[in-house]
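User: I've been going back and forth on whether these two constructs are worth ordering. Before I decide, could you fold them both?

Assistant: Sure. I'll take them in the order you sent them. The first construct and its structure tokens:
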Amino acid sequence: MRWVLPEYVEDILPAEARRIESLRRAILDLFFANRFELVIPPLLEYTDSLLTGTGHDLELRTFKVVDQLSGRTMGVRADLTPQVARIDAHLLNRKGVARLCYCGSVLHTRPATPGATREPIQIGAEIYGEARPVADAEVLRLLCEALALSGARSPRIDIGHVAVFRSIARDARIGAELEGELFEALQKKDKPAIGALAKKLPAKTREALLLLADLYGGSEVLDEAERRLPAIDSLKKALKTLHALAKACPIPVGFDLAELRGYHYHSGVVFDAYCDGVTGAVARGGRYDEVGKAFGRARPATGFSMDLRALASLKAGGRKKRK
């Protein structure tokens, strides 16, 4: 049938469209009230720019086409965050702190999770030019307010910090190849694989890596990490930041020190938000100070993005099927 849409791509009918639009306006008004300015990046741009600074994290998720005018390869955005980073670094070129927000559709080559749409509507906020944890705390509080606006039931946030693993790896001078293999094993919390990969490393490094796989739970995780992980300055600083964020966040917080999502993209804190009624993360965020450097201007950056369609489904009182 000619009118059948591609898999995991669907029309939005009036009732859902109204919920999405109402929530979009409410969340953007919240951002505006907190001094964030709206930007609207293009739907597609040259992959040289679109994928700059993201490594392979977005490469496989991005649809690519050939520009009939220039012959160059273009990509349909799979994430607005790198585009907003480009705008801050290359177009606005401000010296002080910039607060930017956005909302628009993105397109994925495959569903991010089984059963998810390939055309999410992404809404988010970013702070540029502020390296202190106060900016991370600000975006976390803003995320909590946005979740409350959406009617999220029993919201909770899981927080990690890529500097914990990175500090251990660099202190032991682990090579890039082994670091990548350990990263994969930690993501799976595969302790036998971690032990096998780390068998030739110093005992303190091997013990620290094995411990990371078990360091998830409440604030007691941070206390145990301080007692048992190596006394590396950058690691201690990361744990101090996590303690501060736990105090600043108005909703329940959990920690996972082996959470390394976007390891080659993020540079500090990473977090995921969950709520009853949506299976899987409804919002994601973190710090990514290195992205602006790829556009010729290094800028501290932190922020989050939310799946507006999943949030709007909560307003309907139904359950959005996501795995």
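The second construct, handled the same way:
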Amino acid sequence: MSDDHKLVVPEVNGEVVTAEDLILANPNCTTMQLVMCLKPIHDKWGIERGVVSTYQSVTGTGQAAVDQLNGERAGLGPERVYPHAIDQNCLPHCDVFMENGYTKEEMKVHQETKKILGDPSIGLSCTAVRVPVFGGHSESVYLELASDVSLDEVRAAWSAFPGVVVQDAPHDNDYPMPRHAQGEDEVFVGRLRRDLTHARGIHFWVVADNLRKGAATNTVQIAELLVNSGRWG
């Protein structure tokens, strides 16, 4: 969150990068896939507040967490990276707990979203949960918008945004899942629907491979942005 360094998602805020930037930071993996879907919405209709619940792959913790899950599934009683078993379990505990009751992971989503979208007025809260999957991170997102919008307009805005793939045909069992996102560079979004209690509230579901767009792919894209724009050597 240093004011002297930029968090960059090329499709979202690549224009902030200059030749003078000697250090650029990858945002948190959960934030990256989220802002890819928030950006086209916020630009057109404005986001007043939102609530995000994450369902995060064990790969986000590293190889030792993968070994723990595989070992538990094999009945080997492996060394634990997490404070509890992860197989057949969900842990509402990603990173360390802060004094305000949120984890560091949850606060990253809150703070980084404001910084990347360039709007400190966006009110966003998060609950981050570790789940026993390998393929990627999933997020349930609720937004309250500043102006009215149709669901078709939201889908069109996503479809036109680079790096976002709309999978939103739930009656045909077509919606984003981490198993299908694994190994892919895009961010997948679907299950779009209106809130039942707020006139400008919408819900949707976002999935991405946290090791690709959530980490390595975004890093490569930043380098490509610098080279292709002539802003780097």
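Notes on the second construct follow. The longest strand covers residues 47-56. The first helix runs from residue 10 to 13.
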